[in-house]
Write a structure and sequence with these properties.
Layout lengths: L11 E5 L5 E7 L4 E7 L4 E4 L5 H8 L4 E6 L10 H8 L2 E5 L3 H8 L4 E3 L4 E3 L5 E6 L8 E5 L7 E5 L2 E2 L2 E2 L5 H16 L7 E4 L5 E2 H4 L3 H7 L2
Length: 219
């Protein structure tokens, strides 16, 4: 079975993170979007309220949601955002350059973040925000580096098993590759787990040998 595999619309998995935190991954149709829920004793952080609000709500239950992070502005990643935001009253966060587009599409009010920002997690932990220009102007990745165990990158649609996310031209491709190399591959070790916006997980170690191949392949 591939790393971190979940069946669209039905499957899910939950695993322990550092301390009292746990991570749940599940997929929502129709575009097989991964949704990630990082939970602590008293609250949780949701990454990408993509679509299928009832399914997302079923995972949230009565557990308070302190923050909903949207990784980028594409429609398949925001279709349930307004409904889940209204139901939870959570703080809403997205990459600064994508803010206007997300607010216009969802009728929500977003707090803009970018590289260097932090998103607080339950139990005193945090996610480091990594801006990556290319898939969209304001796409963000989220890095979790615990005291014990592997680091994790919640990559949105910036990085997948087998290459970077889709870009529309050579300039955007070069920008995304540069951000991936300088902000991710040059910073985090091979053991780092990559949780993408669609499909199975991978690690930086599995992908690192192919960086030159990706650059040569281009967009």
């Amino acid at each position: 079975m591939p790393h971190g595999h979940v069946e669209p619309g039905t499957g899910s998995w939950t695993q322990s993170l550092d301390g009292p935190l746990s991570l749940t991954k599940f997929s929502v149709n129709p575009a097989d979007n991964n949704v990630y829920l990082i939970s602590g004793p008293d609250s949780s952080v949701l990454i990408d309220a993509a679509n299928d609000a009832p399914r997302i709500a079923s995972f949230l239950g009565d557990h308070p949601v302190q923050t909903i992070v949207t990784t980028h502005r594409h429609p398949d990643h925001i279709q349930a955002l307004s409904e889940i935001a209204a139901a939870t009253g959570a703080r809403l966060v997205c990459g600064e350059p994508d803010r206007d587009s997300i607010e216009a599409a969802t009728g929500t009010s977003q707090e803009p973040v970018w590289t260097g920002s932090r998103i607080e997690l339950p139990a005193g932990a945090h996610l480091d925000v990594v801006g990556a220009v290319g898939h969209t102007p304001g796409a963000i990745m989220l890095a979790y580096a615990p005291d014990e165990g592997p680091a994790r990158i919640f990559a949105g649609d910036c990085l997948f098993p087998g290459g970077p996310g889709k870009t529309g031209n050579a300039h955007d491709f070069a920008s995304l590759m540069s951000d991936l190399e300088t902000k991710i591959f040059n910073v985090y070790p091979d053991s780092t787990i990559v949780h993408p916006g669609h499909g199975d997980d991978t690690t930086l170690g599995e992908e690192r040998p192919h960086l030159a191949e990706w650059r040569a392949r281009g967009w």
